[in-house]
Amino acid sequence: MASAGKVITCKAAVAWEPNQPMVIEDIEVAPPQANEVRIKIVASAVCHTDLYHLFEGMHEDGFPAVLGHEAAGVIESVGSGVTEFQPGDKVIPLFIAQCRECRFCKNPNSNQCEKGWAADRYDVMSTEDSRFTCKGKKVLQFMGTSTFSQYTVMNQMCVAKIDPAAPLDKVCLLGCGVCTGFGAAVNTAKVEPGSTCAVFGLGAVGLAAVMGCKFAGAKRIFAVDTNPDKFEKAKVFGATDFLNPKDHAKPVSAVLAELTGGGVDYALECVGNVGVMRSALESCVKGWGVSVLVGWTDMHDVAARPIQLIAGRTWKGSLFGGFKSKDGVPEMVKAYLDKKVKLDEFITHTMTLAQVNDAVDLMKKGKCIRTVLSVSPQ
Ligand SMILES: NC(=O)c1ccc[n+]([C@@H]2O[C@H](COP(=O)([O-])OP(=O)(O)OC[C@H]3O[C@@H](n4cnc5c(N)ncnc54)[C@H](O)[C@@H]3O)[C@@H](O)[C@H]2O)c1
Ligand SMILES: [Zn+2]
Ligand SMILES: [Zn+2]
């Protein structure tokens, strides 16, 4: 490629400061260093975690940054020492690494690789290092990925090579939301056939959790959301019952207890609200109920009465659905190509990178499931 080894100037949506719209700018993207690859981002969806960083977490040290972490693209060039990737390979950027060497990678039960931003900078959500500059300033790479940019540079341990047959404008969803929700049900909760589940929050993450519960053989799946517009989609992914907490005077956990003879077997929180996290735990049956925290928040403590756990409930959390990222994502791409999991049904809108703020507004207003942005022409 003619661009290999050179700085690329391209379009990116820069979040200069918290709580302000992103600005489309020309940014400079440095060539990949040792063990790094430069990726042309073809498609990127917007996930609530992008909104969280911009409008909810608002950690001042996390700006300026290029957001975006749910994407797919093509390798443009590779740095020294990279043998796994070649220009032209289709890839999905990974917001958690899989180095295959650390103690977490070697443990089959964890995906918490100790490399990358997620190891120690949860608050700022990026490493100090970046390959981006704009107007003479360093711009941070949010979640290490920064997919609201036509090009990005990542370490090869944070990139998954995928089937060349995969449509990038669909499989981008496997970069975060769909793997997260599906895996939270299948890998973390380990939903069993014949069980009863409840999923709180029906964005892409929650709908993917519904899909995971159904895939695992759950017989009854309660879909819980304060926005009743989401129920129709939840049915498409396998929900059997629908609950709007606002329709009931009692807490939703009490409603679920009545409907299920004491509570559900599994309850997944896909909102990012500590009150809902507690309510999901309390919706589980004593004795064996499992509740999984999936929603993202770092601003408040979670609370529960000890008796909830003493009585035999289990409280777990799930990052990226428990998938070891480099191994899991290509498998999920294959599952989509084999029609074992749905992706197209999550996509309610398509836009261009220049419309990224409109896509964010849609999500803020609860009017979309996923908007896929076309970032670079293919
Ligand atoms: N753990 C992870 O690895 C991981 C990965 C991706 C996203 N997330 C987090 O998952 C959450 C969901 O992401 P998304 O992209 O699907 O978001 P989204 O905004 O599309 O969906 C959230 C849904 O929750 C509903 N909701 C809000 N308040 C509620 C309440 N009190 N009770 C029930 N439902 C309520 C909303 O109406 C909406 O449908 C976010 O917190 C996001 O940051 C976590
Ligand atoms: Zn996400
Ligand atoms: Zn590792």
UniProtKB/TrEMBL annotation:
Its cofactor is Zn(2+). It holds the Pfam family ADH_N. PROSITE patterns: ADH_ZINC. Belongs to the zinc-containing alcohol dehydrogenase family. The keyword NAD applies. This is Alcohol dehydrogenase 1. Keywords: Metal-binding, NAD, Oxidoreductase, Zinc. GO terms for cellular component: cytosol. One of its GO terms (molecular function) is zinc ion binding. GO terms for biological process: formaldehyde catabolic process. Residues 17-373 form the Enoyl reductase (ER) domain. It comes from Solea senegalensis. InterPro entries: ADH-like_C (IPR013149), ADH-like_N (IPR013154), ADH_Zn_CS (IPR002328), ER (IPR020843).
